[in-house]
Amino acid sequence: MPRQVILLSGPDWQLLPMMPREWEWKRVWEQPRAVYPSLWIPAAVPGSVQADAQEAGLIPDFTVGLQSRCCEWTSERDWVYLRSFPTPERHPGEVVRLCFEGVDHACHVFLNGRPLGDHEGMYTPFEFEVTGLLRDGAEPNALVVVVEHAPREVGQIGRTSEVRLWKARFAYDWDWCTRLVPVGIWDDVALVRTGPAWLRDVQVRPAVSEDLSEAHVEVVPHLGGDLPTDAELSLEVTLAGAPVAAVVGSPHESPLRVRLPAPQLWWPNGHGEQPLYEAHLRLRRGGEALDGCRRSFGLRRVEAVANEGAPAEALPYTLEVNGKRIFLKGANWAPIHQLYGRPWVERYARWVRLAQEAHLTLLRVWGGGLLEREQFYDLCDRAGIMVWQEFIQSSSGIDNRPATDEAYLAYIRDQAEQTIPRRRHHPSLVIWCGGNELMADDWTPLDEQHPALRVLGDCVRRLDPDRHYLPTSASGPVANASLEHIGRMHDVHGPWVYVGPEEHYRLYNGIDPLLHSEFGVEGAGNLETLRAIAPDEQLWPPDETNPLWMHHGSWWIQREKIEGLFGAASDLATFIRASQYLQAEGLRYCVEANRRRKWRCSGTMPWQYNETWPNTSGTNVLDFRGVPKAAYYYLRRAYEPVHVSAAYEQLGWHGEERFRAQLWAHSSLGERHGRTRWQLTDAAGDVLGSGETEALLPANGALRLAAVDVALPPRLHGLFVLWLELHSDDALLSRNEYVFSRAPAPILRPLLEPSGAALRLQSSCGTVCVGNEGTGVALGVRLWHEDETQAIWSENYLALRPGEEHVVHQRGPRGRVWAEALNTEPAEAS
């Protein structure tokens, strides 16, 4: 018989909290519904007990106020899952297995009152043969899964050397989330019916020739059950549903290998298409189907090569895909939700789509989070977003060294051997990494001389030899970006804050990393999202005196910094606008500076892309509800395929007689002629200086275009703006603008003062025309929809000169639309 998968996942489960080991004392598996019948609650699988408990009213909404503290008890209980299901129709000779894709973290499984076995490890699948244990007749089967309370583990602050388990560590408390440790059945559960032999796993290994003209795929089956001597194995490869190649062989003689004519290559986002092939594998005996499965895959050739001008001892950080160097326009991906067990289908789809539209080519899945689930990889395959997946090891502050005892090394070897095969067929996966910020006691990044990182490297080379392996990140002789480390920065991290109106630019102009895989700038959350966690009176003041701000992001409170630059904030909305502007300005500059160093620098990855629970302030660009902050749009602009940027020394020019900057072009595309126009204007839009330059933009490179040197008139006391446009063949490729101040401290106060700008807004069928009918420049013009969790804007946070109009496209539901700016009153669309 062909494989039949009967999903037991869904909302048809029941859940019972019990004190640790109480389930054993009560022998709950024998008559589960008779144990505390009034205490059972509905449950969903996949999921977490906390999500079910919240929906049942056992705990409050953990995202609101300080209420997560009232939920921590949930991880201290054992939880009993119960699922009843009918016995499927059975055929002679078939085998039925009960398969679990993931239980977080340890469990005991019983079927119809009989123990099946125990399991530990949230990332490792397990199964039991239950062919003879299913009930006959109409009586339903009773599946009982006892999930134990969460194991003791190290949060952000502690000793990495004491970590013993691969369980998502962020949930034990991190600087950008609360302490709430999920437990539960967090992946699918299914009955799988096959013949007496089955395909336990299938390794699909495509290969592309160096000249990209030829490709083949090898398929290695891993079989289970009793394999007949006369069994045969067939492989068919399809593309978009159409047959491409096929072969029939013996399962006793693997691998199966087929040539793929006219190979269609998988490319990273912005560099080409993402065609996905499918390998269909069928196990037969004569004309009888025993089992079958399919795997999607992509054809691409990925190599890690040395950076330009890199020291001889440096690791290769530049990725070549299909012979083309791909600049890693990346970001760091945090878990999708504090309670990550639910599928969160819409969240994953929106988050990845927004990453694709921000021109990202890579997401780094950080080592304190998750070995990401299948749906994340499927989405990245289709979006062309490469994945850097870290194993679950991370720094802990007091010491940052993984354990080296034999028991731990055997444990991580076993975990890696079970998890690597689950994701290796995805074309988006390009890098495995041993973990985050693993360092010796002198803060020197570890390498494969460390036993744990050597074990993981050996596993990758043996089980997934076509992927690149990095022992840790940061890696190299130093861990952090610093002007003191020039010439010694390989892959570095930090800083994670806006350093200052002069210091920030001095730092990012001066450092020379080969790869900048983690850094960031902090900024307040979106007002609408903050109002979902507390009323306005509890959200003020935004500083260390407020328990709410301490609970939702204490590391990232920045009131003193913001008021030092913008002056005292009188209300929350003003504070948020100022904070988000500074985050956007600071993060943009980091990214553009790293792009200017291409190919000495091969990539830049801000921390962090998304947030796991709602913070009052943080380094994320996408908030808990999926609403972009200002920094998202600045990042998206900085990552556009062809981009024009400015390098400068400071934001404040009080007392300076001349303004100076350098103009740069960055391209991920082919060679082309470009014409760059620039203007320097005051806050009324009056021109202080202008210029135009033409240049041949290099293919896939960066080029210094021109220098701007303008005398600042004595009458100028407030803001002034540098406007940039890059054209090619009369097409506008890129526009950018930078705001500076000639005011005394607080230098950015004029940004929050009325400028004479006046917004006008018209909306029709997903097209919004925003114009400035006033006499002053409108800065930080934000468009927003009444349901920002569903809206997607083609661009946002604009600058408009007097008389200027701009057309923006909006996808999502119809509804009311508004516009506001930093320095003018809001307007509603007509």
Low-confidence stretches: none
CATH class category name of the largest domain: Alpha Beta
The number of helical runs is 13
Radius of gyration: 28 Å
Query: What is the typical, i.e. mean, pLDDT?
Result: 96
Number of domains: 5
Specify the CATH architecture of the largest domain.
Answer: Alpha-Beta Barrel
Task: Give the CATH superfamily of the largest domain.
Answer: Glycosidases
- In which range does the helix fraction lie? 10-25%
**Strand order in space, largest sheet:** 31-30-28-27-26-35-33-32
Shape: globular
Q: What structural class is derived from the secondary structure elements?
A: alpha+beta
Largest sheet: 8 strands, parallel
Number of strands: 51
Instruction: Kindly report how far apart the N and C termini lie.
Output: 63 Å
At the third CATH level, what is the topology name of the largest domain?
Answer: TIM Barrel
As a percent range, the share of strand residues is: 35-45%
Give a summary of the structure in a few sentences.
The protein has 830 residues and is of the alpha+beta class.
Please characterize this protein's 3D structure:
This protein is α+β, with helices and mostly antiparallel strands and 830 residues long. The chain has five domains: 4-193, Jelly Rolls (Sandwich); 196-297, Immunoglobulins (Immunoglobulin-like), CATH 2.60.40.10; 315-639, TIM Barrel (Alpha-Beta Barrel), CATH 3.20.20; 642-753, Immunoglobulin-like; 754-830, Immunoglobulin-like (Sandwich), CATH 2.60.40. It has 13 helices and 51 strands. An eight-stranded parallel sheet has the order 31-30-28-27-26-35-33-32, with helices on one face. Strand 7 and strand 8 form a beta hairpin. Helix 3 (345-357) packs parallel to helix 4 (374-383), helix 5 (406-423) packs parallel to helix 6 and helix 12 (572-596) packs parallel to helix 13. The longest helix has 25 residues, at 572-596. The chain is globular, with a radius of gyration of 28 Å.
